[in-house]
Amino acid sequence: MFAALGISALVGYLLGSVNFAVLVAKRYGIDILKEGSGNPGATNVKRVLGKGPGNLVFALDALKGAAGTYLPFFLADAVSPGSPRFEVLVAGLAGTLLGHCFSCFLGFKGGKGVASTIGGLLVLLPIPIVIGAALWAIAFYATRYVSVASLALGLSLPLSCWLLPKFTPQQFGDAQLIFAGAIALFNVWTHRSNIGRLLRGEENKFTKKTS
Question: Do residue 169 and residue 187 come from a single domain?
């Protein structure tokens, strides 16, 4: 089992370390690490280059999250057949998020992992992440802060896993609830600088690029 978890996490990390914000921005002759907020993520690409490139990066990061969660499972299962599926998938997503946030190709720098988290959770917790995505949209259009929307999404995950079984036939085990809580805490940690700016009233609201 431990071999399967390690392989899944390692493959996920390598996949997650591929930063699409840097690659897409480079196609436009832009070093995204030196523009805007300097964060190599979809939001900064959208601010600097506009809606099209930003949405492309978001979609690619979400796809990376799904692939980094799902694909390593097959290699891990080949090495250690019969390993617990959910735990091995979680290891893949954990590795992918670590790679995205601390890319070995970018000097262990990276984005905040929101889109990759969404992609991975579509594999692991599809109903809670759909609810979270809806809350993201509501929070974003109400506040125009991407950070507030992302925090709302992350914090909604353990709440959904806890509340849904009380009102619907949907059931979640302890492992899924603990995992959702860990994702929420990781989301808060990656947005710690944003939280500081929000508390100081210094966080920038999202505005569309007009040119």
Answer: yes
Count CB-CB contacts under 10 A for residue 146. 25
Radius of gyration, alpha carbons of the chain: 17
Same domain, 201 and 110: no
Place of tokens 């805490």: 185
How much is the average pLDDT of 1-5?
Answer: 83
User: What's the pTM value of the predicted model, to 2 decimals?
Assistant: 0.82
Question: 76-83: which pairs have CB atoms within 8 A and are 24 or more residues apart?
Answer: 76/3, 76/4, 76/5, 76/7, 76/8, 76/11, 77/4, 79/3, 79/4, 79/7, 80/1, 80/3, 80/4, 80/7, 83/1, 83/4, 83/5
123-to-67, 101, 118 alpha-carbon distances in Å? 9, 20, 9
Domain match, 74 and 94 both: yes
Please check whether residues 113 and 43 belong to one and the same domain: yes
Q: How much of the chain, in percent, has pLDDT values that exceed 90?
A: 77
